[in-house]
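This is your field. Have a critical look at both lines of this record:
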Amino acid sequence: MSTPIGKTLWAIAEGYIPPTSTGPAPQMTSHETACILNTTNQEAQIAITIYFSDREPAGPYQLTVPAQRTRHVRFNELKDPEPIPKDTDFASVIKSSVPIVVQHTRLDSRQAELALLSTLAYASE
């Protein structure tokens, strides 16, 4: 794609990692995911900051999305600088060095009748 699409600052105001799961891991593990699309010809340097209702923010969590690639980042798997707690409300801000597109997805498999939610994140810049 010759014209990059997306923005460099995104927000997901709603976040929650369910505390339990049913079904085989890792496919059916309850999770939050940021699906990041980079259509540019440059690597996207990503910084994710997590906000809570009752404590200071966590992060930034640093990662890279190669040029003209997608990366699905499970918030459950973010460990450095600290794991994101399960069963806790949070929000996230995602900053990128190049324009990207971010979609938010949650799999809640606490029950066998699982729930899947997906929506475009809020693009700011």
